[in-house]
Design goal:
Helix content: 55-70%
Number of helices: 12
Distance between the termini: 19 Å
Number of domains: 2
Shape: globular
CATH superfamily of the largest domain: Farnesyl Diphosphate Synthase
CATH architecture of the largest domain: Orthogonal Bundle
Length: about 280
């Protein structure tokens, strides 16, 4: 997942508590740099993987208090400080890095559980790190956070089909493609009734998952709770925009405008407290 699409990274928002901006910013730039190593420029896959292996070594050094190498000193000096000051779970940072490593060969995903396993590393650590910074560690909150983050990741996939598929990056599970009558070895390139039904099915899956975790907004204090309300409503609004296009997202990318932001803000004012079960 491109870090610029981490909707639950409140780096620039005034809603982010000032005391948490340094650790959140350090985590953001750690992930953003790893994303660039995996996905930007024209380096061959072998070079990308070698760079990411070196990057992992620097993370280990940051976690153990060793000085960073000059190449990424600007990333790991502040990250090491935040790991120390906030006892950041390094395993979650390792998971984020592993997701970028997985992206390099542009793998395919056989079914929804396989795609969710990718989300477990690419998206869920972000929410868990933010909960850690707020001192929330109970299992129910973590489960709800995972549901929100995985849903955001899935929504981003279905929003970006027109961008990802031409680049050879496919997150459409093979099992879903075949269930809708498509050959998983030949990816669709244009919108058809079959692809519209496929996208509608996948969007419904993401919406169910998002709603199952949405009541977490009431657990986070103050600004963080309002930030999360906007994150949840933003994801749900993207799904509405895809539906308004009749799920023709293979050729068009829906975006949010000022009117959407106003609607999301209004919806954020009232969100139900009931908790529903998480759907895989």
């Amino acid at each position: 997942m491109s870090v610029e699409h981490y909707e639950n990274f409140p780096v620039a928002s005034w809603l982010c508590p000032p005391a948490l901006r340094p650790p959140i910013t350090a985590i953001y730039w750690f992930a953003r740099c790893a994303d660039d190593l995996a996905d930007e420029g024209d380096a061959p896959a072998a070079q990308r993987l070698a760079d990411l292996a070196d990057y992992r070594t620097e993370l280990r050094k940051a976690a153990t208090g060793e000085p960073p190498a000059p190449r990424w000193q600007h990333i790991f000096t502040p990250l090491a400080r935040q790991i120390r000051d906030h006892d950041l779970p390094v395993a979650l940072l390792n998971d984020l890095l592993q997701a970028f490593i997985r992206d390099v060969p542009n793998p395919r995903y056989t079914d929804r559980p396989a795609l969710l396993d990718y989300c477990r590393q690419s998206a869920n650590p972000v929410g868990r790190l933010l909960l850690h910074l707020h001192g929330i560690t109970d299992r129910n909150a973590l489960t709800q956070s995972d549901a929100i983050c995985s849903a955001l990741q899935l929504i981003n996939f279905w929003q970006d089909l027109s961008v990802d598929l031409p680049r050879g990056r496919c997150y459409l599970p093979d099992e879903d493609l075949m269930r809708h009558g498509m050959d998983a070895t030949e990816l669709p390139t244009t919108d058809t009734p079959a692809t519209q039904a496929l996208v509608a099915d996948l969007c419904a899956w993401a919406q169910t998952m998002m709603l199952s975790g949405a009541s977490l907004v009431h657990r986070l204090p103050g600004r963080a709770g309002w930030e999360l309300r906007g994150v949840v409503q933003g994801g749900l609004r993207i799904l509405e925009k895809i539906a308004a296009m009749h799920h023709r997202s293979l050729t068009r990318r829906p975006t949010l405008g000022p009117a959407d932001v106003a609607l999301m803000a209004a919806r954020s004012l009232w969100m139900p407290r009931q908790t529903s079960s998480v759907q895989p």
